[in-house]
Amino acid sequence: MEERPYRAVGYRRVSSREQVEGFSLDAQETHINSFVQAQGWRLVQIYTDAGISAKKDSRRPALEQLLKDAKKGTFDVVIVDKIDRFYRHLGGLLSTLDQLHENNVSFASVQEKLDFTTPWGKLMLTVLGMLAEIYLDNLRQETRKGQRQRARQGSWIGGIPFGYCQGMCSECKDSNGEGYCPNYGQKNLGDGRNLIAHPIESQVVKMVFELYATGEYSHVTLAEKLNQTVIRLSDGIEVPARQKGRKNVKCPGRFGRDIIRDMIPRLSYTGKLPYVGMDKIGRHRRRQPPDEIFEGKHPAIISQELYDRAQDMRKIAHKNPKQRNGKTCKIYPLTGILQCSACGGGMRGESYLERRIYEDGYRVDRKLMCNQKVVSADLVEKQMVDFLRDVIEHAQGENLNVLQEEITNAQNRLERARELYLAGQINRSAYDDEQHRLESLLKDLRYNTVGATMTSLSIIRSGVAEWNTLSQFEQKRLLQLAVEAAWVRENAIVGVQPSIAFLSLLSTGSSGNMGVSGRPPQSYHLICLQGSAKRPG
Predict the structure, then answer these.
(1) 421-446: per-residue pLDDT in tens?
(2) Structural domain includes residue 535
(3) Domain's final residue, options 120, 149, 178
(4) CA separation (Å) from 377 to 87, 164, 298?
């Protein structure tokens, strides 16, 4: 049986400068045609990239189409006049040859007399594929090192998020620049390397977090509000808020819920730089917790406290939808916290004949026939607030004030070190040493139990004092901050497991008949309020 001839395709390329200097596309095509005829192959097509460089970052539509067709199996061999017509970058050449090899497509170069269709050529192509794998693995490692170092220095990595721009006002190409930004065409406010706050978008970001943290808005309702919002600038000009859009994909315009959903988790709005590394094949792990968090050179748009409040509200909203079947849902602050002290079932918040109640989940599901009756939501919620108020009134805050001063001093020193480095008064080594030392100190303070208690005390104290004016979402967030679990018997809360941040406040003691039990396994702390509470096994 006669073997069919190889289906060959040619690839030719010339840059703009090379066109001027006389490197002809026609000459390349002539050489490719002569080579195909000499081999007895059949020329299927010639792909052409005219006026495009072969550097590693250049985008070549014809080459991209060639690689797509290679996956479809429409040809057997690729022919070029010279290798530099194909790639001028070793890494790109090796990687592309490896892709062709995986799709059973060979490669030949006329001028260099390379023919990978022969047995020895196929062996050489296999070796080149191994070299490509080694090269790319090493390149990924070096890329990871470089990106991590940039992050450590506070330099932004990746696309520019909504709320920021590069500050190159005189040559701005931002989609929310011309005709929208008041600084467009004026003196540059940045250096193009570090981000600055966009004068309009940054106000929108702050507004999003402030409204979302109230618990009164979902992603959809918040997007609807933004689409009706007008931002007033310092000079009195009013500008309607709009999203940034994506280049060649989506134009600036109305906000959607997806934009709000992506905006809320962004820690970078606090001036931090979360660093997420790449996976084993060099792809960024999107939507994953950061490996490390560094101080960024970009300005903060919102405070850390506002960000934390929004994240707490996000967790609550995930389990407590605001609407169901077109109706507003009621939020029960103790759902997920309150448990039956007899059987261990979770107490579910329900509405019954216009009454707010908590009911034993095991009993509802008929898993256990527990004697626990339904309890009044208003009654047990009041008991929990009274407990928090009692603890706070007897908590001592002298050590907390000292810690606050230490944190403030550490933050000021870190800022001063950055200013000295940018002014050229200290070198990189001295700056890195100071930054690492202060980062370590801040990290210790940030996760210190007393430091966490200080923050909790401030939030819980103000929340308890304004309990009746808080929304149901805010009430739930407050209780989750202070309490991990609580146990009820009949109509009374009989035990509380405080959160780690709230626990140290209890060491000062409180009034009433409260006592702290011993510490059962898993560092479990139980505050017995009345009688004894059983922690279900």
Answers:
(1) 677 777 766 666 666 665 665 555 44
(2) no
(3) 149
(4) 71, 45, 46
The C-alpha atoms of residue 354 and residue 61 are separated, in whole angstroms, by 66
Do 201 and 214 lie in a common domain? Answer: yes
**Pair 260, 211: CB distance under 8 Å:** no
- Is there a contact between 155 and 107 (Cβ–Cβ < 8 Å)? no
User: Which are the contacts of 347, defined by CB distance < 8 A and separation ≥ 6?
Assistant: 334, 335, 338, 339, 340, 358, 359, 360, 361, 375, 488
Domain membership flag for residue 322: no
CA atoms within 13 A on the CB side of 392: 21
As for how many domains the chain has, the answer is: 4
The amino acid at residue 272 is K
Q: What is the pLDDT of residues 318-334, one digit of tens each?
A: 655 555 555 556 778 88
pTM comes to 0.53
Residue type, 465: A
User: Minimum mean pLDDT among 357-371, 381-395, 441-455: which range?
Assistant: 441-455
Residue 406 CB-density burial (10 A; 0-12 exposed, 13-18 middle, 19+ buried): middle
Nearest to 164 by CA among 263, 65, 93, 91: 263
pLDDT, averaged across the chain: 76
Residue 404 in this model has a pLDDT that exceeds 80: no
Average pLDDT over residues 510-531: 40
* Percent of the chain as helix, strand, coil, to the nearest 5: 45, 15, 40
**Statement to judge: residues 303 and 335 lie in one domain:** no
The tokens describing 297, both together, are 């050179």
Q: What is the helix (H) or strand (E) element at residue 43, kind and residue range? A: strand 42-50
pLDDT of residue 496: 87
Range of the domain at 33: 7-149
Name the domain boundary from 97, 117, 149.
149
Q: Are 193 and 243 within one domain?
A: yes
